[in-house]
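Notes from hallway chat w/ T.B., transcribed later so I don't forget. T.B. wanted the structure written out for a chain they're using in a teaching module, and asked if we could keep both sequence and structure tokens in one place. Agreed to drop them here.
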Amino acid sequence: MWILLIILLLAWAALAVLGFVVKGLVWLAVLGIVLFLATVVIGMLRGRAATKK
């Protein structure tokens, strides 16, 4: 589970960086940042749920 989360975080970070490097792809940077934050939140929620069980 954690490996998948780390891979997704790296993919979203790469999309964000690529979007900022290529000026015409700012939408890709925004998408990458949003997906990165969503993955972090989901990972935190699942981590808390796993520790409560």
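Follow-up for T.B.: The chain has two helices and no strands. Might be a good example for the class.
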